[in-house]
Specification:
The chain has ten helices and nine strands. By secondary structure, it is of the alpha/beta class. The protein has one domain: 2-enoyl-CoA Hydratase, Chain A, domain 1. The strands form two sheets. A six-stranded mixed sheet has the order 1-2-3-4-6-9, sandwiched between helices. Strands 5-7-8 form a three-stranded mixed sheet. The N and C termini lie far apart (43 Å). Keywords: Lyase.
């Protein structure tokens, strides 16, 4: 597959997948499909998969125009396929984040085993400000950081910095901006020094310890989003207001 919005490279046993749609690396349907394809390739030829990005920001989120009711099913279905591809990977998945990681651009890192963040990173899910909610974050965050922290992030829509995200248990490590790329490579090289079968089985055991079927959970969260939320007047008004750069007028229905 020829990639237009991502870049893929293999360095030894590490597959590097870069979001390459600057300046904000908006995750649209085309990028989602390219990421799915690249992950399939990586599953067959790498031991570690690193998802990172070009430019100053990891991603400001999914394409707003693809959230409208007529396009939302395709968007949600494809994004769910991408997220489950990451969650179900047998490989070690590392996400390296600089700058903004918002909305869908935050949920991709959430699906990875490890998030390495630059000290300038800002992470969050602002969907509630558009009268939407982030299905993947709702499915994953309560199990990762507890109900109250998840509720706070999702219902305020506020982004947190890298250090706060680490305190909450979202980010694994925070590296300084100046040495970020080098530190990420050192981290990955440290994993490569371990037994690949031991890493694979440790990941398998860790997954068993959570005993959560995220595919089932996400299916129910998506059902509420598509069958209830997206059909409200406020959900459409939030999108319109964002694109028209004005304050939304909520109807509560």
């Amino acid at each position: 597959m020829e990639y237009k919005k991502i870049k893929y490279s293999l360095e030894g046993d590490t597959a590097w997948i870069l979001l390459a749609n600057p300046p904000l690396n908006i995750v649209d349907l085309e990028m989602m499909r390219e990421l799915i394809s690249a992950l399939d390739v990586a599953e067959n030829e790498a031991e570690i998969v690193v998802i990172s990005h070009e430019g100053k920001h990891f991603s400001a989120g999914a394409e707003i125009k693809e959230h409208y009711p007529d396009k939302a099913p395709d968007l949600i279905g494809t994004f769910t396929e991408l997220i489950l591809k990451i969650l179900n990977s047998e490989k070690i998945t590392v996400c390296a984040v600089r700058g903004y990681a918002l909305g869908g651009g935050f949920e991709i890192p959430l699906a990875c085993d490890v998030i390495l963040a630059s000290s300038n990173a800002k992470l969050g899910v602002p969907e509630i400000t558009l009268a939407h909610y982030p299905p993947v974050a709702i499915a994953l965050l309560p199990h990762m950081i507890g109900w109250k922290n998840a509720f706070d992030l999702i219902t305020t829509g506020e982004a947190v910095d890298a250090h706060r995200a680490r305190e909450m248990g979202i980010v694994s490590r925070v590296f300084e901006q100046e040495s970020f790329d080098e530190d990420v490579k050192k981290y990955v090289n440290g994993l490569l020094e371990k037994s690949p079968i031991a890493l694979k089985l440790a990941k398998k055991a860790l997954k068993k310890s959570t005993a959560v079927d995220f595919g089932k959970v996400l299916g129910e969260v998506n059902r509420i989003y598509l069958n209830e939320l997206i059909k409200t007047e406020d959900a459409v008004e939030g999108l319109n207001a964002f694109l028209e750069k004005r304050k939304p007028e909520w109807k509560g229905r």
